[in-house]
């Protein structure tokens, strides 16, 4: 990224969000470090990283939509994929897909892969884009900001990622619980 600038960051973030396991903590943490060194600027970094994340998520969504189901039906029968399970997944996404996409976009590790099952389940594309955008913004902002504040210690983002993950899982569990309690009350 130091050599090729924002273009390299865009392609790395797009690849990460298209299910290629490149940790965003590394990409955005280093981008934040480059901000602290005066190589990048905060707002362009943030905006380009968000656009790249959305772009990569769209690729993953369409891979799931057009290729995921046939591929999993053909080769996944050995690991228990069948049409009945896809229909169940579609019903679950119809009921809880929005909250799943939004919450998963904020969880390390999971955030990269939620787009593919959303495509497989045929979750409405417009809703998917909105929720992906809303979920991408805080994660991207946090990592770019943290990397810029940490400066040369940006690698600490990777080391402390598990603490952040636990905090987000607890927050997601509380939000999900509140959602189910409210829904059950109706």
UniProtKB/TrEMBL annotation:
Residues 22-148 form the VTT domain. Pfam families: VTT_dom. It is a multi-pass membrane protein. It is found in: Cell membrane. InterPro entries: DedA_domain, VTT_dom. The keyword Membrane applies. The keyword Disulfide bond does not apply. Signal peptide: none annotated. Belongs to the DedA family. This is SNARE-like domain protein. The lineage of its organism: Bacteria, Bacillati, Bacillota, Negativicutes, Veillonellales.
């Amino acid at each position: 990224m130091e050599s090729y600038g924002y273009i390299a960051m865009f392609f790395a973030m797009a690849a990460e969000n298209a299910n290629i396991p490149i940790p965003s903590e590394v990409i955005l943490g280093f981008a934040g470090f480059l901000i602290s060194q005066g190589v990048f600027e905060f707002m362009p970094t943030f905006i380009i990283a968000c656009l790249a994340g959305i772009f990569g998520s769209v690729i993953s969504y369409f891979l799931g939509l057009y290729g995921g189901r046939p591929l999993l039906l053909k080769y996944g029968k050995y690991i228990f994929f069948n049409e009945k399970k896809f229909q169940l997944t579609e019903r679950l996404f119809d009921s809880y897909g929005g909250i799943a996409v939004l919450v998963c976009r904020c969880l390390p590790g999971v955030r990269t892969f939620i787009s593919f099952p959303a495509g497989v389940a045929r979750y409405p594309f417009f809703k998917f884009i909105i929720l992906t955008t809303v979920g991408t913004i805080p994660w991207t902002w946090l990592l770019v900001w943290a990397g810029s504040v940490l400066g040369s210690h940006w690698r600490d983002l990777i080391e402390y990622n598990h603490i952040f993950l636990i905090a987000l899982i607890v927050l997601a569990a509380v939000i999900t619980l509140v959602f189910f309690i409210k829904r059950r009350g109706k």
